[in-house]
Write a structure and sequence with these properties.
- This protein is an alpha/beta fold.
- The protein has one domain: 3-Layer(aba) Sandwich (Rossmann fold), CATH 3.40.50.
- A five-stranded parallel sheet has the order 3-2-1-4-5, with helices on both faces.
- α3 packs parallel to α5.
- The longest helix is centred in the middle third of the chain and has 27 residues.
- The radius of gyration is 15 Å and the shape is globular.
Length: 139
């Protein structure tokens, strides 16, 4: 059976290390990798030109992160698929993994947002506690 590995990417060095580890695992087990980037939705209750600019910047960053994931995979001689999502980050990782039938989530231990971690708890911690499948947290 082919392993399906989900790799949430946020542009941090930690998420890139997780992708490289997932590529190593997939090569040994014949697995397929999907890299995802998830953005929190813009709050449109405060409609302003700034919200439109912010949404465009988030979309541009999402494309940059996923392009980097494709580049890292290509350098390792591998092919991966990518997906751009929006929503609450840990919830979307968990639901996407479950709906997609993934057997492993490989993710970085620390993302880009220390403030969010302080206020909400780390994304990796929430995914580990609530995921249906195994989670590999890479430092």
């Amino acid at each position: 059976m082919t392993e399906k590995i989900l790799v949430p990417m946020d542009g941090s060095p930690s998420s890139e290390k997780a992708l490289l580890e997932a590529l190593r695992i997939a090569k040994k087990l014949g697995g397929k990798i999907t890299a995802v980037n998830i953005t929190e939705p813009v709050d449109w209750t405060v409609a302003s030109p700034d919200a439109i600019i912010l949404e465009k910047q988030m979309q541009d960053y999402q494309k940059k992160v996923l392009s980097r994931a494709l580049e890292l995979a290509r350098k390792q001689g591998a092919r991966i698929s990518t997906s751009a999502l929006d929503g609450n980050v840990p919830d979307r990782i968990i639901s996407f993994a479950k709906k997609g039938g993934f057997s492993l989530i490989a993710m970085g231990s620390r993302g880009l947002s220390d403030i969010d971690r302080f206020l909400l708890g780390s994304v990796s911690d929430r995914v580990v506690r609530h995921s249906h499948c195994s989670v590999l947290v890479v430092k």
